Hints:
It is globular, with a radius of gyration of 21 Å.
Amino acid sequence: MLRILTLTSALALSAAAAMAEDIKVGVSPGEHAEIMEEVAKVAEPLGLTIEVVEFSDYVIPNTALADGDIQANSFQHRPYLENQIKDRGFDLVEIATTITTPMGIYSDKLKDIADLPKGARIGIPNDPTNGGRALLILQDLGLITLAEGTGLVPTPLDITENAKNLQFLELDAAQLPRSLADTEASVINTNYALAAGLNPNTDTIAMEKADSPYVNIIVVRKGDETQDWAKKLVEAYHSPEVKAFIEEKYDGSVLTSW
């Protein structure tokens, strides 16, 4: 009986090993990378090994996914994916929501957005979706007015009212923290702010509203959404362990969607 149990256990372990899967998941630096490392720990007992691959910008992760260099990515919000699919023809799909990271306005020179002087230089991301998101935040603050019908992707050309004659510097999102020496303020994505040592809770002079539509998502190639590894990836991400990690580590500057 003991021999049969030992053999059964060995066969079970062998089957589990055979079913184990390895995937690469692309992320951006900061909270997306840190959270995915935690997801990888939870996924391991599920038979899924995750290699976390960091990309320094917002363009390459979707290209790498479309080309098959990685199996999934977790760095972007839904409007950005939709814009990428429209512009680049990627055959990618969302399989789960992850976190929301309210965008913040940071300054080395000002303590309050109300102190923004006329002619101030404002740094914003140079990609259409995040640049548009930054402009929508500034409109919500009453600093500019955008033309109707621009949706979630307005550009500085869509500004119809600009009472303070703000000047916009469109820069790579990853470079915006470094731009603070040259701007009166910059609108920065939370992942790049955190990577630069900025605290969204204490270092911002204004924050995006909590009801933002920019929830982040896990994305795979179309056809892979029903793969077993994709289901395990979502299960691990949406686990109580990962939720507790996010709530403790980010203290409200990163919000879970589940």
